Model the fold of this input.
Amino acid sequence: MKIVNILAKVLLLAIAVVLVYYIVVGIKKPIDFETKRADRYRRTVEKLIDIRTGQEAYKNLHGHFTPSFDTLIHFIKTADMPIVRAIGNVPDTLTEMQALKLGIIQRDTIYIPIIDTLFKHINYPIEDIGIVPTGTKVKFRMDTATIMTGSNVAVKVFEARANNWDILDGLNKQYIINFNAQKDSILRVGSLEVANNNAGNWE
Done:
């Protein structure tokens, strides 16, 4: 009888251990997914912000956006941006414009490589700016358009985007499906449908 009781207790303990294991795994899996998803989203958003920075600099010099990553990369690697600086000191009693008119200060325009200013922070080769940094490492989809606003003004726009299946590739498929059902299934900067000041859909 004692042996039966001992075996029963051992069996119950084993069942309890198995149940605890599955409970812990059941809790840990979605937490692990969310941790990895958040990290992949952060890295993808950083790339989309860099794309926006490049596109806005390109438009400032050319008057329009580019749909081509090859063109954007060449621009970032070779273009200079004008920086206007004041030479001299503005007295406390004058505005900068007054000091300029009186000849106390002068303005000088210098040109600085875009890659050494706007992109000095990046930790990847600029040739990879168009590559989704996680998952399958496919290219972002990018395009440009001209749309009419409600006040009948033509506005040049661009959009760069990646879908969650590319960003989250390799993670639990069911969790990706569940996430897509709750959130937008893409990360996007800019829009081809509305003039949104090149905002990202995460902002």
